[in-house]
Amino acid sequence: xxxxxxxxxxxxxxxxxxxxxxxxxxxxxxxxxxxxxxxxxxxxxxxxxxxxxxxxxxxxxxxxxxxxxxxxxxxxxxxxxxxxxxxxxxxxxxxxxxxxxxxxxxxxxxxxxxxxxxxxxxxxxxxxxxxxxxxxxxxxxxxxxxxxxxxxxxxxxxxxxxxxxxxxxxxxxxxxxxxxxxxx
Amino acid sequence: xxxxxxxxxxxxxxxxxxxxxxxxxxxxxxxxxxxxxxxxxxxxxxxxxxxxxxxxxxxxxxxxxxxxxxxxxxxxxxxxxxxxxxxxxxxxxxxxxxxxxxxxxxxxxxxxxxxxxxxxxxxxxxxxxxxxxxxxxxxxxxxxxxxxxxxxxxxxxxxxxxxxxxxxxxxxxxxxxxxxxxxxxxxxxxxxxxxxxxxx
Lengths: 184, 200
What we know:
- The complex is a heterodimer.
- Chain A folds into two domains: 7-84, Roll (Sulfate adenylyltransferase), CATH 3.10.400.20; 94-177, Roll (Sulfate adenylyltransferase), CATH 3.10.400.20.
- Helices cover 30% and strands 29% of the residues of chain A.
- Chain A has helices at residues 7-10, 19-32, 37-43, 82-87, 99-106, 113-117, 156-162, 177-180, and strands at residues 11-15, 50-55, 59-64, 67-73, 78-80, 94-97, 111-112, 135-140, 146-152, 166-173.
- Chain A has a five-stranded antiparallel sheet with strand order 1-2-3-4-5. A five-stranded mixed sheet of chain A has the order 6-8-9-10-7.
- The radius of gyration of chain A is 16 Å and the shape is globular.
- Chain A starts with 6 loop residues before the first helix and ends with a helix.
- Chain B folds into two domains: 15-99, no CATH class; 104-193, Translation Initiation Factor Eif1, CATH 3.30.780.10.
- Helices cover 46% and strands 16% of the residues of chain B.
- Chain B has seven helices and five strands, in the order αααααββαββαβ.
- A five-stranded mixed sheet of chain B has the order 3-4-2-1-5, covered by helices on one side.
- In chain B, a hairpin with a 5-residue loop joins strand 3 and strand 4.
- Classes of the chains: A alpha+beta, B alpha+beta.
- Chains A and B meet through helix 3, helix 4 and helix 5 of A and helix 4 and helix 5 of B.
């Protein structure tokens, strides 16, 4: 999503949303992420106003103190930025990829099932399976921090069964143009 | 005092403190991912100098051994080759960019707007990592005139200052201080642009 993104040409407008809209966003974030209200309060204090940065192709980035905080595609779920995820790694369920897949991921590829099911990969056990179309944090074999944020295309059990094709669609990864933007 | 103490005790059970993540100063990745970046050698040097323990953790013999993990030797060799290639490419790119920067011209244009009235257009300084908006503001303040960032006919951004200040701007750039730092004086030229007579 952020393979090519430059603030000067791709940003249409920056506006603070209404406080009622901010309230709904806050509620939605709490519902979508594994997050306590108190912790959210620390990331995004009530007093700090959110800024809605509208970008081309229906991407909206939300910033707090002009730092990108999360983003959204159309009216979809809120993706945390990778930097936020590094600070609060528990926000999203985790999946892991093997070492061989890292370099493809960093080149912007979606994650295929074999990379997740192989010995180096990690999928949550069957009783905690992640359904399809859920946000996940992607970790890499032998690494501590997350490397990408994506959305599952299959549930994790299906990934094990099918073991072919795209398993997780990548929204943002380490080193893409959203990563390069530290302040908007 | 007591109230804050209470808060201190209550809060930690609920609020989770953020993890402090160290980022490489060279490639901005967490250092464990430097090996996939395009400046691995420099990243390694930086980590070695700034955080020797971490360097030991990531690049000691055992660490390299265990890192191989499930990956086959060939795949690892491939990866290393790839990294080296990427690095060379990035270096070449940086070199080319620097060359281009050094060769690019800054043009100060004196434009006759009306008899005895001039505007000065400064074009091409954005290449030298100068923020046009800030520079315009600075010039406006300096000369107590209007200065703005506008698109010229070619669609490129330039600074337009009211009044004939070409010589002064040239001097400012040659001094190479303050906001105009980093522009080689040899690359600046003054051009005069007379208003063409209205075409018939």
